Amino acid sequence: MLKFVDEKDYEEACKLLYDAYARLHKEITPKPFAGVVDLIKYLKSKNLIVILATGKGAKTCEISLKQYQMENLFDKVKTGSIKGGIKPQMMQEVIDEYKLSADEVIYIGDAPTDIDAARQVGVKIASVLYGTRIEEEAVKAKNPDAICYSIEDVKKYLTSLI
């Protein structure tokens, strides 16, 4: 946003953006995808660490989690950077912090860039092809470890690895 707003107006512009985001969020995506919360609870019941690593900024992520009543569902939330994509860095931080090996981590993403990020760190990648942002051909071309067309597909894939 710094590219489009004078530095002196930045804070006010952010406030307006976040207010609009929260208002529109309630209208456009009032709930998470059906089954997501149950899947996360299922994974946690298996004593798995469930981390949200998103390209969203901290404030918009906070708004979304609050809207979905998911603020306390994840073991950790890692958010994006104003400077660009940092998902490989986020994944590596998780590996280091939880003293895991890369083959113990699975990233679930919805974009071809998520496949690239996971591969940079050596973690498994399951690509989801449902929702609002579907790039099926681009995802398939990158050959992720799994392609999931539904929450149930995600659960089946993850369960096969437990």
Descriptive notes:
The chain is globular. The model has no long low-confidence stretch (mean pLDDT 92). The longest helix is centred in the N-terminal third of the chain and has 19 residues, at 10-28. The chain has a three-stranded parallel β-sheet, sandwiched between helices. The chain has a two-stranded parallel sheet with strand order 1-2. The protein has seven helices and five strands. It is mainly α and 162 residues long.
Taking the alpha carbons of the first and last residues, their distance comes to 42 Å
Widest β-sheet, arrangement of strands: 3-4-5
- Tell me the radius of gyration: 17 Å
Number of strands: 5
Count of individual helical segments: 7
Determine the mean pLDDT.
Answer: 92
The computed structural class is mainly alpha
Write out key terms for the chains shown:
162 residues, mainly alpha, two-stranded parallel sheet, 5 strands, 11% strand
Please give the structural blueprint.
Layout: H1 10-28, H2 36-45, E1 51-53, H3 58-67, E2 76-78, H4 87-97, E3 106-109, H5 112-121, E4 124-128, H6 136-141, E5 146-148, H7 151-161
Helix pairs in contact: 1-3, 4-5
Briefly characterize the structure.
With 162 residues, the protein is mainly α.
